[in-house]
Design goal:
The chain is an alpha+beta fold. The protein has two domains: 163 residues, Ribosomal Protein S5, domain 2; 125 residues, GHMP kinase, C-terminal domain (Alpha-Beta Plaits, 2-Layer Sandwich). Helices cover 35% and strands 28% of the residues. The strands form two sheets. Strands 1, 2, 3, 4, 5, 6, 8 and 12 form an eight-stranded mixed β-sheet that branches. The two termini are 18 Å apart. It binds 4-diphosphocytidyl-2-C-methyl-D-erythritol 2-phosphate and adenosine-5'-diphosphate.
């Protein structure tokens, strides 16, 4: 009972990149981006409670693929926050995982942002939003957006966010692939494929921002773009069949989610999403299909 009363649970969304414009490799190994994030209604739940030391547990269908040591982004978040305040990270972090692992949907980032917010509440630190966002950026390029949710443009390596207005609800299907793809490997493949190309400065598409602002699904479908898609397809050619299956079933557009291998299908409404999900599942070109909506709120104490 004591443990229950003193636990804090935070719900955190997955993301899809509706535009991922990638620049050339920087000297620090990162790439400058114009990264338009949209949070979708697939969530992990991170629960923290006092413990003798730092401990991570995980439940859910993909739990066996999640590291439970100090490399887990949730553990790193707790350690960073505790270090800033000169306290010990004595906390049990439990992750109820529903976001595909290594799928290009920022599941690890979600858990990092979730653990940070949850520990801040558990330890009564009352950190400012700006302080939390700064720690998020230290944890990873995508982590600030997991805290923020909604929609945002991320520049720099994706960590410098500007919130974007969204004027409606979008319907998506996500086809979860068997096995993950390593984000660094996909960026390396992007570099290899662009070896002899002058990669332009990344810039957000005005048509895309307008489509988000007005909630115009057809316009959003026309503007979706992911510069990492050729690299993900090069490393995982079978994704082409998944993309084709969703389009044939009536999706307005299909793309790889971030670094993949999850693929995303935008549909005109919930019924169309169910039809696409059924076709994807029946085709055997993916492990499972998930119907979602966007935008979704960022990390929230529940
Ligand atoms: C590609 C994206 C799209 O949102 O996410 P996923 O689709 O994997 O979830 C992100 O750029 C991934 O962000 P995140 O997974 O937080 O990356 P980080 O931990 O910061 O960096 C991991 C590695 O990815 C590469 N990386 C990441 C971000 C960036 N702007 N340029 C890069 O080259 C680097 O090789 C880096 O060492
Ligand atoms: N809390 C976490 N959940 C999932 N993966 C994690 C977590 N912490 C660290 N990782 C590591 O990060 C890798 C990328 O995971 P994830 O964030 O799910 O994918 P992506 O970067 O494609 O969005 C995993 O393969 C795993 O080794």
């Amino acid at each position: 009972m004591e443990e229950q009363m003193r636990s804090v649970t935070v719900r955190v969304p997955a993301k899809v990149n509706v535009q991922l414009a990638v620049g050339g490799a920087r000297p620090d190994g990162f790439h400058d981006l114009a990264n338009v994030f949209l949070a979708v209604s697939l969530f992990d739940e991170v629960t923290v409670s006092p413990s003798d030391g730092l401990r991570v547990t995980c439940s859910g269908p993909d739990a066996d693929q999640v590291p439970l040591d100090r490399t887990n982004l949730a553990a790193r978040a707790a350690e960073l926050l505790a270090a800033r305040h000169g306290i010990a990270p004595d906390v049990h972090i439990h992750i109820a995982k529903d976001i595909p692992v290594a799928g290009g949907m920022a599941g690890g980032s979600a858990d990092g942002a979730g653990a940070l917010l949850a520990c801040d509440a558990l330890w009564g630190l009352n950190s400012s939003r700006a302080a939390l966002l700064e720690i998020c950026a230290e944890l990873g390029s995508d982590v600030p957006f997991s805290l923020a949710g909604g929609a945002a443009l991320g520049v720099g390596r994706g960590e410098q966010l500007t919130e974007l207005p969204v004027g409606g609800t979008f319907h998506w299907v996500f086809a979860v692939a068997d096995g993950g793809l390593s984000t660094p490997a996909v960026y390396r493949e992007f570099d290899r494929l662009n070896e002899d190309v002058r990669v332009p400065e990344p810039a957000a598409s005005q048509a895309l921002l307008q489509a988000l602002r007005t909630g115009d699904t057809t316009a959003l479908a026309a503007a979706l773009a992911n510069d990492l898609q050729p690299a993900a397809l090069s490393l995982r050619p079978s994704l082409a069949a998944t993309l084709e299956t969703g389009m044939e079933a009536g999706a307005l557009a299909a793309l790889v989610s971030g670094s993949g291998p999850t693929t995303a299908f935008l549909t005109k409404d919930e019924d169309a999403a169910q039809t696409v999900a059924r076709a994807l599942t029946a085709s055997g070109t993916c492990r499972t299909a998930r119907v979602t909506t966007s935008p979704a709120p960022g990390a929230t104490v529940v």
